[in-house]
TrEMBL record:
Keywords for this protein: Hydrolase, Ligase, Metal-binding, Zinc, Zinc-finger
InterPro entries xref list: Acylphosphatase-like_dom (IPR001792), Acylphosphatase-like_dom_sf (IPR036046), Acylphosphatase_CS (IPR017968), Carbamoyltrans_HypF-like (IPR051060), Carbamoyltransferase_HypF (IPR004421), DHBP_synth_RibB-like_a/b_dom (IPR017945), HypF_C (IPR041440), HypF_C_2 (IPR055128)
Enzyme class: ligase
Annotated family: Belongs to the acylphosphatase family.
Source organism per UniProt: Sporomusa ovata
Single GO MF descriptor: ligase activity
Name under which the protein is recorded: Carbamoyltransferase
Keyword Hydrolase: yes
Enzyme Commission number(s): 6.2.-.-
All copies of domain YrdC-like, residue ranges: 203-387
Chemical reaction(s) catalysed: C-terminal L-cysteinyl-[HypE protein] + carbamoyl phosphate + ATP + H2O = C-terminal S-carboxamide-L-cysteinyl-[HypE protein] + AMP + phosphate + diphosphate + H(+); an acyl phosphate + H2O = a carboxylate + phosphate + H(+)
Ranges for domain Acylphosphatase-like: 5-91
NCBIfam families: hypF
Amino acid sequence: MMDIAVHIQITGIVQGVGFRPFAYNLAQRYGVKGWVSNNASGVEIEVEGSQAAISGFVADLSSQSPPLAVIDTFTVKDCQLGGYADFRIMASVADTTKTALVSPDVATCSHCREELLNPADRRYRYPFINCTNCGPRFTIINDIPYDRQATTMAEFTMCPDCQAEYDNPANRRFHAQPNACPVCGPAYQLLDKEGRPVDSQEDDVFIQARKQLAAGRVLAIKGIGGYHLAVNAFDHAAAARLRQRKVREDKPFAVMAGSLAAIKTQCLVSPLEEQLLTSAAKPIVLLNKGEGYSLAESIAPANPCIGMMLPYTPAHTLLLAPADIWVMTSGNLSDEPIAYQDNDAISRLNTIADYFLVHNRDIYCRADDSVVKVVFNKPYFFRRSRGYVPGPVNLVRELPPVLAVGGELKNTFCLTRGKQAFLSAHIGDLENMPTYQSYVEAIEHMQKLLAVTPMVVACDLHPEYLSTKYAQTIGLPTVAVQHHHAHIAAVMAEHHLTGPVIGLAFDGTGYGPDGTLWGGEFLVADIREYRRAGHLSYLPLPGGAQAVRQPWRIAVCLLKELYGEDFINHQAIPLVQDLPAGWELVIAAAEKKINTPLSSGAGRLFDTAAALLGIRQSINYEGQAAIELELAAQGAVGRVLSYGIKEVDGKWNLDFKPVFAALCQALQQGSAVGPLAADFHTTLAAAACDMTLKISRATGIRDIALSGGVFQNITLLSQVVGMLTQHKLQLYLHRQAPPNDGGLALGQAVIAGEGSR
């Protein structure tokens, strides 16, 4: 029987995951000849042999691919025989059309971990051990195809032993681009806060670092995507010191445990949470504290949850013993981007860290840790970054190339290429120059890495966002996308919906086309257009942005509206008992409409309730009042209080002032704060359901999409989903992007792309 030949092109995450050595070894098994190579689209193979051998090779190539590979397309075409003498891995082919997908960074695999801890292995305690199944990818890549010379490992020439592994098709490190060992690879060193090497009789820098941390010192540790700041999580004084130095008053810290067993001594862990903790991405997983929780109180104060993760680099494994638990928070001052360059880290963090554990392998692209929670037995992202980026979100159809620049808070940007959208790693809040510079650099790098030349740029409707201003400097056609439409379109993109849907977009603030601040929106939307079918009633924000930071301002004006001048005699209301200085001026300015914009934001309802109930008058981080209101409601069963719905100018208007009046009345009757916090949540869920049903009956639409940062409140989310599901409506939640503004750019990109088709 005559031999046949086929040409195979595979796209997806197939570079940097051991696909070429896998194909080589598969070819040896089937006795076929030809070649395999990386190209700018993915992996290319030409192979010839008997009909049976080729059929088996092609079938196994698709069905038994390496564990980290994600195949997007797999194309097989007949071709002419090449007369090959053997099967070889050919040099990578670079061309101008780059469509290969870059792998996210991958946590240390079990094989490398075993070698790391084996005294007989030549890489014993070597903190850069890796193979084709694990190690850095996205954070060290400068360009594709994914080869060593296109990474920050280019300056480290492999020694003969490493080169032999790299060249041996039977070796696990065959064509592992970051391959290295103590002889030829990068190394760690311990520096003092001035950047000087620490003299020590102990040669092992990880033992040195552990001793410093045990003495209560703060360590800055360089990892894969940037620096962490670390202290012993059982050391109350050290944790408090870190919080003070980092200028992070209340927001919880994440922690890293040396083992899953250590996590289980502190937290409740479900099977899916365990699966996430031990996955190749190893994100921070938000877990419920257990009865045995004993970490320093200042790590996650007054919070029943804590973010836990496991070691994902060899250095982490060397630093943490199995029973250890360390605070591992982003290496930055509050509101700044994570430090990833050594000089910058020492300059910015030397007022926080006592020592720096650094290495000499450059990080090309910074990446914060991802944060995820299990919701309805599926992952629900709060931050999508390391371990997941730059993996694509597959779209329902091809779009022209779009750059979507995102919003102001929790910024990410998005690039589209064909039927795929690529969200960036977490950038942060675009409110200062260091973060803005990091943002611009990241956009330029991603455009190069993905070879995307945008035809259009999408931005938020808000004219004062730095991201919007950046979009206007690019010189491309600009599409301004309404904030809440983008939120809903992001959910639709994830689920391949084109609409129409009823979208509930609940957050703090988004600019409306009428010039007011939206945020409690009921939209009838598709992936091109939307109609505002309903919204929360407007509340005044005395002092503008100051009212967001000081929720008492909204609450005191509401009390004046409810009770007139006599409100100060209602002493059973906690806010009245402790009125902040200047409250009279705030009311006077609001009544004269001086710097008092109107907001329909759902987040402002939470702020107002928290202030009225005496839970939180001023916040130290975004969403703090809402988070503490949810915590106060834990364990209580809420009632549905009276609220108002009326139709105004063809839009349903949800009035929550009767709810606040009922809360105040209950306080004066001696009701406890916890049950009233639960009443607030249950009432908002019931009112949202009521509004949605009215719109559904009027339009016939039964697909409901939920988005916006308020839906990080799992108490509210669970009740809204439960109530709407009882009415046989089809609900869609985020599963690949966060519901907060970290997912905004995905929706912007889809709306702008659809409008440009």
